[in-house]
Amino acid sequence: MGVFDRMKRDETAATLSASFTVEQEHINELGVFAKAALWAIDIQTGLLTSCTPSIEKICGYPAEMFLRDELKWEHLIPKEYHHLYLENQQQLKLGKPVHSQYQIKDSEGNLRWVNDRVVPEMDATGELVGIYGLVLDITEEKERELRDAYEAEHETLTGLPNQKRLNQDLKEKMAQGDPFTIFSLKLDRMTLVADVIGRQTGEEAVRKMAQLLEVLNQERAKIYHVRKNEFIYVYDRQLDDDEAVKLCWELIDGIQYPIIVDKLELYFTGFVGAAVFPEDGNTPGALIQNVHKALYYAIESGVNSYMVHSKDLSLDTYKRISLDRDLFKAVKDGQFELIFQPIVEADRNMVVGAEALIRWNHPEWGLLSPDEFLNLAEMNGLIADIDNWVLEDVCRSLDLWRRQKVPLVPISVNRSAKSFLQFDTLERMITPLRTYNIDPSLINFELTESSFVENSDRVAEVIAQLREKGFRIALDDFGTGFSSLFHLKEFQVQTLKIDREFIGSLLDESENMAITNAIIQMAQDLDLKVTAEGVEEPAALRWLQERGCDYIQGYIYSKPVSAENIRKIFAKRVLKPVYAGGQQVVEK
C-alpha cells in the first residue's frame, strides 16, 4: 500500500472513528434507558476495537468479554440464522452496508431479537478494513409484532387459525397442486346455549368444544375456527368416498360428548359437509362455497347429517349458501328495511295499529322476505341481533312520527323464541325505548307458539315482566302450533292472531270456518282480543265482522307499505276496505 493510500485510509478511519466516538458517547448516555450498543472491528486483527458497556443489557455478557476475545458475537447466533450472518459478511466485503433482524441467545439461554446495522470501512483499493455496527434489542417490539400477526390469523377464544389463515393456507396448498379434502363442521344449538345461559358460559362451551375437537382429531388434519359455530378441517390428501363418510361420522359422533361448564352438562349436535380439491373448486372461494353447499344439504337432511359435495347440488342450495355467507355483513351494515301493514278495527274501519315486517335488501338477490333468511339467522346466532335492529328501527320511526305530529298507534314487533329466551332479553327490549323515549304501550310483541314449548317458566317470567312495564303481548299464528288453553292462562297474552292458513280459505273449507269461529268465541270468553291476518276477500271480512272478530289485517285494507306511506295512513286514521271505495296505498 502506498503512502497516499495509507493517508487516505487513515483519513477515512479518523472520520469514521470520530463519528463513532460521538455516537458512542450518545449510546453510553442512553444506555441506562435504551438497549443499544455500538461496536467496531479491525478486519486485519479480527478483534473488536470498541464495544459500549450497554451490550450487557442486550445479551447479558459484559463488553470486556468481547473486547478480550473471550466471546464472539456470532457464537450467540442460533444455527438457523448462520446463513444470514454469512450473507452479511459477503455484502460487507463488497462495501455495502447491511441491516438485518435476527435472534441471539443471551447469557441465561433466552432468545432475544436484535436489529443489527453494520457499515463497512473500505481502503482506497476497495478492501474491507473495518466494520462499525449498531445493535438494538427489539425483543419487545418484535414479540408484539409477532403477537399481533398471530392474533390477526387466530381466534382469540379458541386459539385456532381463523378464516384469514384458512384462505392463505388454501392458496399455498393449491399452488402445490396436490389433491386434498376439506370438511365443514357446523354445531347446532351452540347459539341457543349462549342465549339461555349467558355469553360467558357460551364462550367457555365453545372453547371446550374446540379442545375436544383437537383431542379427537389426533393431528390428522389442521382445524380452523372460522365462525362461532363452524370449524373447517383440512386433510393433506384426497380421501376416497368411504374414508370421507367415515370421517363425517367420526365428527358427528365426537361432538356428542358432553361439555361440562360450571357444573352444567351441555350436549350438542351438528352437520358436516365435505369437498375435494381440485374437482370441487380450484380457488379458496370456490372450494369453501362447495363445502358449504354440501353442508346445507346436510342441514336440510336433519340433525347429525352429512353430505359429500357433488356437482348436482341445486341453485336453491347455492342461494342458501350465498345468503348464509352474506347475513353477517347484512347485520353489520344494516341492509334491512321495515315495511308496515295496518291493523284495522273490524267494525269501525279505524286504524288501531300496524305490524312491522322486515325485508333484506340483498345486493345480489334483491328484496328478500323473512321466510328466506330468518331460519338462517337462527342457525347462525344472528336472530337476536336482527330482532333488536327491528325494535330499534320501530322506536326510531315512532319518534319521528311523534315529532311530525302524527297520531301514534301500537306497532306489532315479532320476537323469535331464541332472542326472547336470552338471559338479558328484558334489558335488550327496554333499551331502545329509553333511547327514543317511547311508551311501552306502543309496542306489541308477537310471539309464536313455539316460544312456549321449551322453558315455559322462563317465558312466563319474561311476559310478566314485560306486562308490568306496560308492553302488549300477542300470540301469533294461533292454531298452527303447540299452544293450549293452559298456555293462554299461564302466559296471560292479550291478543290472539288467527293464522292466515285458516283465513285464506275460510269460506271454502268448513273445518277452517269451525276452527276460526271457535277461536273467536274462546277469546271472547277469556276476554282476549282477536286479530285475523291475511284477509283478502270481502265475504271473509263480512263473516269475521259478524262473529265479532276485533281486528283485521290483510290486503282487504292495505298491502304492507313503506314507513312514509304508513305515516299517511296513521294521519287519516280511517281506512276503508278496497271493495267499498277504499284505496290501497301502492308503492311508487
UniProtKB/TrEMBL annotation:
Domain GGDEF: 178-311
Annotated protein name in UniProt: Diguanylate cyclase
InterPro entries reported for this sequence: Cyclic-di-GMP_PDE-like (IPR050706), EAL_dom (IPR001633), EAL_sf (IPR035919), GGDEF_dom (IPR000160), Nucleotide_cyclase (IPR029787), PAC (IPR001610), PAS (IPR000014), PAS-assoc_C (IPR000700)
Organism: Jeotgalibacillus alimentarius
Source domain of life: Bacteria
Cross-referenced Gene3D superfamilies: 3.30.70.270, EAL domain (3.20.20.450), PAS domain (3.30.450.20)
GO molecular function: cyclic-guanylate-specific phosphodiesterase activity
PANTHER family associated with the record: CYCLIC DI-GMP PHOSPHODIESTERASE PDEF, SIGNALING PROTEIN YKOW
Domain PAC: 98-150
Pfam entry (one): GGDEF
Domain annotation EAL: ranges: 320-574
